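Hello again, I could really use a second opinion on something today. I've been staring at a protein lately and its backbone has me curious. Can you walk me through what the tokens say about the fold? Take your time with it, there's no hurry, and the full record follows here:
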Amino acid sequence: MLQEGAHGKWTVSSSDESTEENADSEKPSTSSLLDAARGRKSGPQYPCSEARKAAHKRKASPLKLSDKSSSTEIPPAGKQRTSQEGLGWCLSSSDEEPEDQEKLSHEETLKEEKCDAPKEHPLNLCKDDELSENQKAEEYNETPSEAQDTWDLLNEGNPFRFFLTKVRGIEQSYNSGALHIKDILSPLFGTLISSAQFNYCIDVGWLVRQYPQEFRKKPLLIVHGEKRESKAELLAQARPYENISFCQAKLDIAFGTHHTKMMLLLYEEGLRVVIHTSNLIAEDWHQKTQGIWLSPLYPRLPQGTTGSDGESETNFKSDLISYLLAYNSPTLKEWIDLIQEHDFSETRVYLLGSTPGRYQGSDKEKWGHLRLRKLLKEHASSIPAQESWPVVGQFSSIGSMGADGSKWLCSEFQESLVAAGSSVTTLRKCDVPIHLVYPTVNNVRQSLEGYPAGGSLPYSIQTAQKQLWLHSYFHKWSAEVSGRSHAIPHIKTYMRPSPDFQKIAWFLVTSANLSKAAWGALEKNGTQLMIRSYELGVLFLPSAF
């Protein structure tokens, strides 16, 4: 549905999500045209949300336009409504708060039973000849010269180690310096021994094919948050692969998700950590704007050194271990031990994570937006005339913010975002401008993917109608410098630029969308921070470079 107001048209919809496991409703789908041709039920062959199923349906059966209607003029949204109604191409997510979800639960029960039912067709994604034409089109082939360019780039050209993903369909020059998942898993980056993939939505067959042939049978641990039928589907996908094992992240607080996107890559030459924003499915690495932080190659420490050796000035090593310990999983003990054995001293970024729980005392500052507040107070430089330096947030999903800005966004959350330097006097938060970047309907319509791109931009109509005040902060998506204005953003970034956008006080790339579920919300008169989901990002501060 299109919501029109003083601030333009925005993508909003009704919710078809499961109230308990709706997750951060960005689970996408790849088309299964081959299955459709064989008379099977068309749909993604891995757990995904109704939003992505609807996007898949739109992609598989596009509207046929006559020659007369194929002019460059954009058709009025109202005239298209009949063909779009009911497809719900932009649905709600776990970023919704419980009170919003529970009201919908009764009417959704029948829908849930339909979409959660196990698939009837066998899951056999390991054979390349079983791929749909659409999947084949999305397979990525790298020429030797491109591989060498990537290697040169990694070693010389990017001191921040921040990359965008490659995008099909844009001018090739804009992909210079960008990475595909096959680049990351390339033998050029190391001789793989084993790997761990932390993610939200996972197409196991596709993931295996992203590894070079020689690494496809190496041990692979998949860390996920699926339950019940969705978990059964995920495990079924992996049956053909004896090298794959699983770790289920505990989600004890309702409406939480395992939203972290991280790779741990163990090589003969050392260890590498990759923190990024893409689901492990073809669509997320095809025509979307995504972000990646790629660590240096961490060498193994000499024998006889202790675990505290090889720490960086940013405390990255111990923070990563603390994050993994929060899973409370014996399966991750092996990776924690491996991290202890490697030298992380070259790391220049700070780790910023969220883990589900209710935290008090000093634990409050370990996770979520209070962790960001602590890092900025301790390590960010003071900003001259800082009330004029805006806060910019950019994300792909929006949760419930409350009846007005004072409930969360412009109170506790903004207080964390404007923190800087312990010696700086506290500003009145309302003095600092907030700019929120979120795609408009036209951004989606004119994107490389077209309307199906909306399946990864969940913002429910129920939530949107309760917080129309929020829309005055909105700015449309535009990325001319990187050639990605038509590549819908699934990346999430937060930053504090100068008024003229020539300087930056700090920059964060993360899996965390704009929601209390991801960042945490204060409870009990500010003495307790409650977080629902797992999230992970890295913070860039000038002082660390």
Remarks:
- Residues 98-116 form the longest helix (19 residues).
- Residues 1-8, 11-41, 65-94, 103-131 have pLDDT under 50 and may be disordered.
- The radius of gyration is 22 Å.
- Residues 116 and 228 are 9 Å apart (CA to CA).
